[in-house]
């Protein structure tokens, strides 16, 4: 599917926060209102301050069950977030949201040719999640650098553990058939429905 390019559109260049909606089961309405909905505007605004024009004109965030294979996934106009990020403090939710927002530029506007190059998109999104999140939290440069270095150290330890403990064929990024099916199903539901509230119930 083709999406119109917004980078040459003068009204899009100044739009810090694109229109957004959150879709979640009713039982998570409170958690979404307390955590996620507060974080979307500062994270979108931080992304705009760093990278400029948002590549897509609107954003729907769909909360998926905790057994979803990852904490998040980005697709044009849709971010899938695991309900697991809604628990605890806002740090996990904020960083994951920033990561998926970054994929609008790296992974969607510009994408890898195939899964062998997907690590490039992941690398940019992982770096930018720290940059966006530091801005969204309004950290001073010294605090931002400290947080970034700590996270880099934790990621390095985790990567070493994963490489050590995973068989070689599991160390390659690839699409799961269940992810592809879920994206097409969610697209259908979101484009066919008429939603009056920001939150609604979806049956998984
Ligand atoms: Zn990613």
From TrEMBL:
<dbReference type="GO" id="GO:0070006">
    <property type="term" value="F:metalloaminopeptidase activity"/>
</dbReference>
<dbReference type="Pfam" id="PF01433">
    <property type="entry name" value="Peptidase_M1"/>
</dbReference>
<dbReference type="InterPro" id="IPR027268">
    <property type="entry name" value="Peptidase_M4/M1_CTD_sf"/>
</dbReference>
<feature type="domain" description="Peptidase M1 membrane alanine aminopeptidase">
    <location>
        <begin position="53"/>
        <end position="141"/>
    </location>
</feature>
<dbReference type="GO" id="GO:0005730">
    <property type="term" value="C:nucleolus"/>
</dbReference>
<dbReference type="InterPro" id="IPR033577">
    <property type="entry name" value="AOPep"/>
</dbReference>
<dbReference type="InterPro" id="IPR014782">
    <property type="entry name" value="Peptidase_M1_dom"/>
</dbReference>
<protein>
    <submittedName>
        <fullName>Aminopeptidase O (putative)</fullName>
    </submittedName>
</protein>
<dbReference type="GO" id="GO:0008270">
    <property type="term" value="F:zinc ion binding"/>
</dbReference>
